[in-house]
Write a structure and sequence with these properties.
Helices cover 48% and strands 9% of the residues. By secondary structure, the protein is of the alpha/beta class. It has a single domain, classed as TIM Barrel (Alpha-Beta Barrel), CATH 3.20.20.140. Strands 4-5-6-7-8-9 form a six-stranded parallel β-sheet. Helix 7 runs antiparallel to helix 11, helix 8 packs parallel to helix 9 and helix 9 packs parallel to helix 10. It is globular, with a radius of gyration of 22 Å.
């Protein structure tokens, strides 16, 4: 095949809150209607945040009286590197999270095809019914918009998850060979209910599960606690890889003008942390078949983390306080760096060139490219130009693996069914590899591709 089969391992979808009502169990309709009426509603939170951001940069018409100067000052305090022109693009792309091209399967397929994307793995956006999503934390510390994250019951959280699962399963059914959805278990407070929801999702075609990185605020123990073992065992039995996606920290930062900066830095730490909780906490020793995926949280931290964990395990062994990996009863069936290659993957959304060059050491077979459509940092609709810059000099085999083959293997996409799609809409491989071809020339007009040489360049 002379074209690239591009599969995005990180795309997003969600409904306007009111449109979830048909998917909510009828016994919760009263709670749902009350939530819509009184909020805070995820859409309202994001719309208000975007409205204020837009006003701060003079994008909306008319601007908000009396707020523009104050909010512009606060935005520059929290995002000092954000140029006004970039902010305008960011706001313009994000002010309508529910435009028809995102939520209508046929229109969405046209946008994917225009970008050369043959298939996509879809992760929730805008939160679940009944409560705000993790991005609320960031708006909270910047704009003081409250959420019900701490007060919502486990029952309603799981009812919201079921409604989302019904909705996303319905959505991807329009093109099941080209769209696969990720399930979400928003809390592990009730392990039996979590296993029940995981099972329903697997039986209805969703692949993988997104779980909280930490539930400190809900008073729950860390992920390696054995109370969760039945859930991890179910993930193995149902072939559902466990996912952590960058979001927000599980702790509050207050409303200081510096809170957004600290939160914005630590959201990556909290997303990384499950790796060592699961590895060093003995979970793999009890569930060696468990698969983990870390999505949209950069890549450069991983080699250092794996090396540090390897050295920590060696220290524990040498001190006589633990068993060597692979021995009966050992907390780890292999060294952390070996476990990464056999059991883990990285959804490297909008990866930089430096991150792409780390793939050989991390394991090319563990890296999956994602466009992050339709978020403001997405490389859509210039994914081909971006890949041309990020992966220049890499072998065709490595590019094909990271841009599609690995995701197909991880999520069960049928490559034979996708092959005709790739032949029809995929980027020509010779253009992807050509440092002076049409994709390279497109990249010259695309500022983000020009900055693709540094870590986190699109975040």
């Amino acid at each position: 095949m002379d074209r690239l089969m591009l599969i995005s391992a990180d795309c997003h979808w969600g409904l306007e809150p009111a449109r979830y009502r048909p998917y909510v169990d009828s016994k919760y309709h009263s709670d749902f209607d009350q939530w819509l009426e009184h909020g805070p509603v995820p859409a309202a939170i994001h719309a208000e945040g975007n409205r204020r951001m837009a006003a701060a940069f003079g994008v909306t018409d008319p601007p908000l009286a009396g707020e523009q100067a104050e909010l512009a000052e606060r935005l520059h305090e929290h995002f000092p590197d954000l140029a006004e022109s970039e902010a305008r693009d960011w706001i313009r792309e994000s002010t309508n999270a529910f435009r028809p091209e995102i939520s209508d399967p046929a229109l969405r397929m046209k946008e994917m095809e225009a970008d050369g994307v043959c298939a996509e793995f879809i992760i929730q956006q805008q939160g679940l019914p009944f409560f705000a999503d993790a991005a609320q934390n960031q708006l909270d510390v910047i704009f003081d918009i409250p959420s019900n994250w701490d007060s919502i019951s486990t029952e309603l959280m799981m009812a919201g998850a079921r409604a989302y699962h019904r909705a996303v399963a319905d959505f991807v059914s329009a093109a099941p060979d080209r769209m696969i959805g990720l399930s979400t278990v928003p809390t592990l407070a009730d392990v039996d209910r979590a296993v029940e929801e995981l099972t329903w999702a697997a039986e209805h075609g969703l692949r993988g599960v997104l779980v909280p990185a930490d539930e400190i605020r809900r008073g729950l123990p860390p992920l390696y606690d054995q109370r969760y073992d039945r859930f991890w065992a179910a993930c193995v039995d149902l072939n559902m890889p466990v996912h952590w996606h960058v979001g927000a920290s599980p702790i509050r930062y207050g409303t200081s003008k510096h809170a957004g900066t600290v939160n914005g830095f630590e959201i990556f730490f909290w997303a990384h942390r499950p790796l060592w909780l699961m590895m060093l906490g003995g979970v793999f020793g009890r569930h060696p078949g468990l698969k983990l995926v870390f999505t949209e949280q950069t890549v450069e931290w991983l080699p250092r983390a794996l090396d540090a964990m390897d050295r920590r395990v060696e220290h524990v062994i040498s001190s006589g306080n633990g068993l060597a990996p692979g021995n009966p009863g050992a907390p780890l069936p292999a060294k952390p760096s070996e476990l990464w290659r056999s059991n883990c993957m990285m959804g490297a959304s909008c990866m930089s060139r430096e991150e792409a060059l780390l793939a050989e050491g991390i394991g090319v077979e563990t890296m999956m490219f994602g466009t992050d459509y339709p978020h403001q940092e997405t490389v859509w609709p210039h994914s081909g130009a971006y890949i041309n810059q990020v992966m220049k000099g890499l072998s065709e085999g490595d590019i094909r693996a990271m841009c599609g083959e690995n995701a197909a293997r991880a999520y069960g996409f049928d490559v034979e069914k996708l092959r005709p799609v790739a032949e029809r809409i995929g980027h020509r491989m010779e253009d992807v590899l050509d440092p002076q071809g049409p994709l390279a020339r497109e990249a010259q007009k695309y500022p983000r591709a020009g900055r693709a040489d540094r870590f986190g360049s699109t975040l």
